[in-house]
Specification:
With about 140 residues, the protein is α+β, with helices and mostly antiparallel strands. Strands 1-2-6-5-4-3 form a six-stranded mixed sheet, with helices on both faces. This is Periplasmic protein.
Length: about 140
């Protein structure tokens, strides 16, 4: 969803929002992310347009920051909502200087840190998750024998 409401006219530069070193000109939400939005963020069944509009407003207001300094795949919205995103280049879209514009693909919404305390340290959360899954697999393989 590209920004539908632009206050400028007679301009030749495509609209984008700077996020780190990326110039985001489009937001795409995966099916998985839509399901996670309903499960973990908002109980009301929001449409894709409403979720995209929410994300555009947060991008414009600089409310989206990287979760870690070095990594560029996990982001915090309003210091609470944890989002996993990927970026890809938009074909045939550049700014006036010729730099490529990006498409922000929302992979999933992990949830709110205020509700899920485990999200405060994602590295330990993921290691715990991998360990618990591994232990479940080991238990199931014991039962089959």
């Amino acid at each position: 969803m590209k920004d539908k409401v632009m206050g400028r006219w007679s301009t030749y530069e495509p609209f984008f929002v700077q996020l780190g070193d990326k110039k985001v000109a489009d937001v795409v939400i995966t099916n998985h992310a839509k399901l996670r939005w309903t499960d973990r963020v908002s109980s009301s069944n929001n449409s894709l347009e409403e979720i995209c509009a929410f994300l555009w407003e947060k991008l414009k207001n600089d409310s989206i920051v990287p979760y870690y300094r070095n990594e560029e795949d996990v982001y915090l919205i309003d210091d609470d909502l944890v989002v996993v995103a990927e970026f890809s280049h938009l074909e045939h879209e550049t700014d006036l200087v010729g730099n490529p514009l990006h498409k922000m693909i929302i992979v999933t919404f992990l949830g709110r840190m205020s509700e899920t305390m485990e999200l405060r340290d994602l590295k330990s959360y993921y290691s715990w998750l991998r360990h618990s899954r591994r232990m479940t697999l080991i238990k199931n393989s014991r039962k089959r024998r």
